[in-house]
Amino acid sequence: MSIIFTDQLSKIYPVPIKEPGLTGTLRHFFRRNYRQVEAVKSVSFAIESGEVVGFLGPNGAGKTTTLKMLTGLIHPSRGVVEVAGHVPYRRQEPFLQKITLVMGQKQQLIWDLPAIDSLRINGAVYGIPDKECRRRIGELSEMLSLQPQLKQPVRKLSLGQRMKAELMAALLHNPQVLFLDEPTLGLDVNAQAGVREFLREYNQHTGATILLTSHYMADITALCDRVILIYAGELIYDGRLAGLLDRFAPYREVQLELTHPVADEAKLRQQVSTYGEVESIEGQSLRLLVRRDSLTATVSQILAQLDILDLTVTDPPIEEVIGRVFQAGAIG
Q1: Tens-digit pLDDT profile for residues 6-30
Q2: 10 Å Cβ neighbour count for 14?
């Protein structure tokens, strides 16, 4: 049985409509009219225990609303949702013991207390015995390389150290399911890498299921084999990360290094545009997008007509593929 299951999950918000001016204000005060905004539209998917799944979409796509329904913070308008064998919006204690929600822009640690005091408070809230709580704190702090900082007030920790401490607080009760909403938001490159490595190790060590949203594609490519894409409240893709290229990117990226510097960029751009879409021309380097079904013939033509020092054919960066999907609103 899937540890996360949704079927036709939807959330509709009534939004009041107010006409401008004093008359509109008075009418709005005495008798309000509403329009229905469907933030999530009949989303269905299933996630198995131990999977690490990326949950992607542009701002306003419905990601956070879906996460809130999965964690029971809001009630769905219709559809079925089950997490770890429970109905989330009932917020029963056994359910809360099995999940955790980490939001990169929110904090649960007490600002002026040492991090370890907040962790002990969390342990008491979840009814973890003192000895077991100390053991878990020691294990998590070692995995996160955070032992020396636990006795410092939270306000004196760096942003990366605070995020690690937040993860410790969220994982202290050994949840089966982790909902992570932008866990590396605002962190520097080294701190992001540290959090990713910890999540990978934690998943392998505990078998916990992770549903991860992030605008940093490095988080997704480093941790997730499977991704779910949501656009305008609708699920538009659910499958392997590599499958996105086949589904939404029917082209390959051809990178060219010319033998000589470009003398007339406009003329060169016009010439190479017959091969495919020109992404960039910088010095002697060019990047083109060429359709997969004509790749062999196009590369042969390029080699015959241009003075090429080097030529490389690759798949386009995954973040560009997903960006194009969202810009086009691709559905299928």
Answers
A1: 999 999 999 888 888 888 788 878 8
A2: 11
State pLDDT tens for residues 223-250: 999 999 998 899 989 999 878 777 777 7
- CATH for 250-314 is 3.30.70.980
Domain boundaries, the chain: 4-245, 250-314
> Would you say the pTM of this structure is higher than 0.70?
yes
Q: What kind of fold does domain 4-245 have according to CATH?
A: Rossmann fold (3.40.50)
